UniProtKB/TrEMBL annotation:
Residues 1-25 form the signal peptide. PROSITE patterns: PROKAR_LIPOPROTEIN. Keywords: Signal. This is LPP20 lipoprotein.
Length: 456
């Protein structure tokens, strides 16, 4: 027990001796005295004409030059840190000049700008004091720079840092993947920094190029802002129709609601940009794929999802045709001129209406004085010619056929359709009316097929 106590006391004594300021130093240098100069104290007053910083480093053996160099580096970093703090203060002052949309972007840039100055190389810095504390093995260095030089360095580094941030903000404002509000805020912050700082003393900052770039960004975002109202309207129309589709139980109503939901959604996706999901409440592309599947368009869903396993062109065309007409308002106008005045061609409009109704369209026959209505597809089908007549030489029966031109016109599609052709029906033994009815069926079939081809 006594032996252990003596050993413990010896250890404590050795430790105390090692940490004692009067212990023998491990370095082998000649010191500058035992009393520390006043300038080594953090509370030392600073000359009004200069800016100073002090650094200290441990001396390893006789390696005094290395210790002095390390102390100088520390002092230089201290000067750079003072510039960094000054830069941060300057950026915060600029913060008050920025619109609300840009403040968050500008605040986030403060540290980025300031950090860029920590590796600054200051000009006209001199080591005006040094002290070697041989007893404590510490080397001290004071660096000083004229206050005017310090301010020039501070201003230069501030402006270079801010110019880099302007470039970064413009890059964000140009990023089509970012929400519009974030892009607008970034552009506003860039404009504030360019407008509230004088870069003329820093020729390496490309101010003219940055201003030109900002002008292009502002025009682009202004156009997007105008488009946003229209795009948000499309999104709202889709949301309303989609809710009707989800709640519909009648197959016809469900098909029509799907068409009303798909049209604004496809228009939205065809735009040069799509508002962020957080703004419109849904992810547009995934919604398109899921809605196509739910509405019974598996081929179109695969195409929208870019799946390798596709469908036959005929099946894809049929689905596109059905998607286009589902729930769409269509007005029909049909006329037949055989001699003299054109008359309503009832059979043609009836045949068209029946075919389009199977695709989910809501059709109505337009009056002669009706004017085109926005958002409604208009289809005209006209025939003009004569009824040929002959008597069969064998059974003496009479035959009838139509000889003339058929003209169809569709408006309201992305690509209008105009189709004119010469028609000659086969001989019909019943009546001239039956001949024109057969013409109506074939003309309606041809027109519906043409519409389907335009959407392949």
């Amino acid at each position: 027990m006594t032996h252990n106590r003596l050993f413990g006391a010896l250890v404590v004594a050795l430790v105390c001796l090692a940490v004692s300021p009067f212990a023998s130093a491990a370095c082998k240098v000649i010191g500058d005295g035992d009393t520390a100069p006043a300038w080594t104290s953090p509370q030392a007053p600073e000359d009004a004409a200069t800016v100073s910083a002090v650094g200290s480093a441990s001396i390893d053996g006789d390696r005094l030059p290395e210790a002095l160099a390390a102390a100088r580096t520390i002092a230089l970093k201290e000067l750079a840190e003072r510039i960094r703090v000054s830069v941060s203060s300057s950026v915060k002052l600029n913060d008050s000049k920025v619109s609300e949309g840009g403040k968050q972007v500008l605040r986030s840039s403060i540290e980025s700008v300031a950090e860029a100055t920590t590796n600054v190389t200051l000009q006209n810095v001199r080591a005006d004091q040094q002290w070697v504390d041989a007893r404590r093995c510490q080397a001290w260095v004071r660096l000083s720079i004229g206050r005017a030089d310090f301010e020039r360095a501070r201003k230069r580094d501030l402006l270079i840092g801010l110019s880099k941030q302007v470039g970064a903000m413009l890059t964000l404002a140009e990023d089509a993947t970012k929400p519009l509000v974030q892009r607008e805020g970034s552009a506003a912050a860039a404009a504030a920094l360019l407008g509230s700082n004088d870069f003329r003393d820093v020729p390496e900052v490309p101010v003219a190029a940055l201003r030109s770039r900002l002008g292009g960004v502002d025009k682009m975002l202004a156009k997007m802002k105008q488009d946003e109202t229209r795009l948000l309207g499309l999104a709202q129309s889709h949301v309303q129709a989609y809710a009707e589709f989800k709640s519909a139980t009648n197959p016809v109503e469900r098909l029509e609601a799907a068409g009303r939901a798909l049209r604004p959604l496809r228009t939205l996706l065809a735009a040069s940009w799509v508002p962020d999901e957080s703004v419109i409440g849904f992810a547009a592309q995934p919604r398109l794929v899921s809605l196509l599947n739910e509405a019974g368009y598996p081929c179109l869903a695969r195409k929208a999802a870019n799946e390798a396993q596709g469908c036959a062109p005929e099946a894809l065309a049929q689905e596109r045709q059905k998607e286009y007409f589902a729930g769409r308002q269509v007005t029909l106008s049909c006329s037949l001129r055989l001699a003299g005045k054109a008359e309503p061609w009832v059979k043609a409009c009836a045949s068209l209406g029946e075919s389009l109704a199977k695709l989910g369209a809501r059709t109505q026959v337009a009056s002669a004085a009706a004017k085109p209505v926005s958002g409604v597809t208009q289809i005209r089908l006209d025939a003009e010619g004569r009824i040929g007549k002959r008597q069969d030489p064998d059974d003496k029966s009479t035959g009838y056929r139509f000889e003339g031109a058929v003209k169809s016109q569709v408006r309201g599609l992305d690509s209008p359709i105009d189709d004119t052709y010469q028609a000659l029906t086969g001989w019909n033994p019943v009546s001239d009316a039956m001949a024109t009815d057969i013409l109506a069926l074939s003309a309606a079939k041809r027109l519906v097929e043409r519409i389907g081809q335009s959407w392949q």
